[in-house]
Amino acid sequence: MDFLFLFFVSSLICGGLQFYIHLKKKNITNESENNNNNNSINNKKNNNKNGTLLDIGRSEDVNNKSEIDKSNFFTENEEKQFKKFQNKYLLTYLLAMASDWLQGPYVYALYESYGYSKQEIAILFIFGFLSSLVFGMAVGPIIDKYGRKKMGIIFGIFYGFSCLTKVINSFSILLIGRLLGGIATSLLFSVFESWMIAEHNSRGFKEELLASTFYKSSLLNGLIAILSGLFASEVANRWGYVSPFLWAFSLLVVCSIIIATQWNENYGDSSSSLIETLKTSIQTSYNSPGIISIGIVQSFFEASMYTFVFMWTPTLSESPDLIGVQLPFGLIFATFMVCVMIGSSIFNLLSHIKPELLIQYILLFSSICFVIPFYFKNSLLIYMSFLSFEVLCGCYFPCIGTLRSKYIPESIRATVMNLYRVPLNILVVTILLNIERLSNQRTFLSCAIWLIISLAYYRIFISRSQELIKVNK
């Protein structure tokens, strides 16, 4: 199998999609400007024909201009303000994600170089997921009550100390690092999104623009993952397996400083106690089919995604036609990330489709991607299914982000997001604890079943919502 060829093909597809999106936006902008110019000329002609006074004509021109501006997506000044805000968010978010991507490829290798057995390494990994599971429920209410900016800084501190623990070859110290890393992971996947949505709304930007931010964050995250992987490989070869963690620490310091100096503080429900916030979140979720369905989709899809992260390497290595072949794992990972970028671009092109419908297609096709390695043993077919799943991941993240911004109340957003990371972590830990008993094929079948369950529940939610709309009418 020519992995390099597939990498170039996927890169060309990604580049082609980006070029097409750029041309599409340019054409829309030109059409909008032409329409505005034509409207302005027609207005002036009408004023001259009617013999209006100069002052009245000016007044009408101003009114017409304001009406044209209102009909546009946003004014030039609003566009500048939005892009400034969006870039501020993307800078901090991508710095945080880069610090995470730098560590990923070398966590296992570092533990192994310290002389720990596979069982001991598995304990370290499980401890990290359990930490995220246990503390995730408490982290959400804390974020909403004490502020997203403060917790963003604490994320940088916790993850930074987690990186520093990797320098010391002590099992107990490494366990503490996994504890801090688990808490930081819960913060990473809730603080940034919660802050961005709250700030977006407080500045009065249109709700439709959230999809643009989610698209760019997903697209650029794929690019950052590729660059971080290449950089981590280079520094690890030069200075050892610890060096990627030290570079990650430096990025976290920069990220925390930017958050401290550039972010405004915003809150969820700051008047209630932590327990009351947690109770309110659970009650709101229970009484809202929309929140429950989105939470189930998030839990099952991301659990299958994390399981895939553990399974793709042994699955390809153990394929009958690849046994004994030295696989280019770095190149394969880079291809995966290019596919994520392709998926983000596809989401942008499918912006006319409602996210409530798009998420169903994502779940359906993702389940098919996991059924393929269960039924087939051909390495090319399996690899293509893996690439397809990564494309769907690229569609999933901006889509689920848009849905969360639409259905989860602002006051309890971070709490609800972390609540549904609990079943996610339970599913992943269950798979990890039974990884030796389950074959690769059965593990992927489990992922497919999770996705079918989430799709079925989501379909029930959609049908119930439509019935309620008919009753209300």
UniProtKB/TrEMBL annotation:
- Its predominant location is membrane
List keywords of the entry alphabetically. Answer: Cell membrane, Ion transport, Membrane, Transmembrane, Transmembrane helix, Transport
- Transmembrane residues, as ranges? 6-23, 90-109, 121-140, 152-173, 219-239, 245-264, 329-350, 357-376, 382-403, 415-435, 441-460
Q: Name one GO cellular component term.
A: plasma membrane
Q: Where is this region: Disordered?
A: 31-56
A Pfam family that this protein carries is: MFS_5
Provide the GO biological process annotations. Answer: monoatomic ion transport
Q: Where in the cell is it found?
A: Cell membrane
Low complexity bias: start-end ranges: 31-50
GO MF terms here are:
molybdate ion transmembrane transporter activity
Q: How does it sit in the membrane?
A: Multi-pass membrane protein
Q: Coiled-coil region(s) at which residues?
A: none
Protein task: Mediates high-affinity intracellular uptake of the rare oligo-element molybdenum.
Name of the protein in its database record: Molybdate-anion transporter
